[in-house]
Specification:
189 residues; alpha/beta; three-stranded parallel sheet; 9 helices; 49% helix
């Protein structure tokens, strides 16, 4: 089980609840130390990860409990990334964040995916997020997989309705423009 945990970093719905160390740096170092990094290796990894997530050096010595919600979330995510898992499993990563902080955290995950070739699994009820970031969508309904495939196919058929999902705002806008203005836009536009 420990080997699986080392490969898959799980970011909880409210990852800031995972914080417990006295300082931000100690919190980011916790996971690497738990997976056998030396103190020096853990510190180097924590500092590198903090820079990646644009966590200012000035807060590394502060208590994580004196940070804003967005900062706390970044510190918690840094704690996961600091041991370099292959896969990041994100459970509603923008829940409870204001729109600016939500966009910032999703752009960071997207950057991590692109630059470091990390697999990102996003669990979300927010179809706007799914449509913006997902390359493959798996829909669960009553504990079963009811769809596995392309997001355009999901939302251009009745499959999304059968699964009690809402259509992303941008697709509603495309539907509106097609219907009222006579455009012939498709969802790949």
């Amino acid at each position: 089980l420990k080997q699986i945990r080392k490969k898959v970093g799980f970011v909880f719905q409210f990852p800031e609840y995972q914080l417990f160390e006295e300082t931000v740096l100690q919190d980011i170092m916790f996971a690497p130390k738990n997976f056998g990094f030396t103190e020096k290796e853990a510190k180097e990894s924590a500092i590198k990860t903090a820079k990646l997530l644009r966590i200012d050096d000035s807060i590394l010595s502060k208590s994580p409990f004196n940070l804003s919600g967005g900062q706390m979330r970044k510190v918690a995510v840094a704690g996961i990334l600091s041991y370099d898992p292959d896969i990041l499993l994100l459970d509603e990563p923008t829940r409870g964040l204001d729109p600016k902080a939500a966009e910032e955290i999703m752009e960071l995950f997207y950057q991590i995916h692109k630059e470091y070739n990390k697999t990102i699994i996003l669990i979300s009820h927010d179809m706007n997020l799914v449509y913006q970031y997902a390359t493959r969508v798996v829909v669960m309904n009553n504990g079963n997989i009811s769809f596995d495939g392309d997001k355009v196919k999901l939302f251009s058929t009745e499959i999304y309705k059968k699964n009690h999902l809402t259509k992303p705002d941008v697709l509603d806008l495309i539907d509106y423009l097609n219907k009222t203005m006579g455009y012939k836009l498709d969802y790949n536009t």
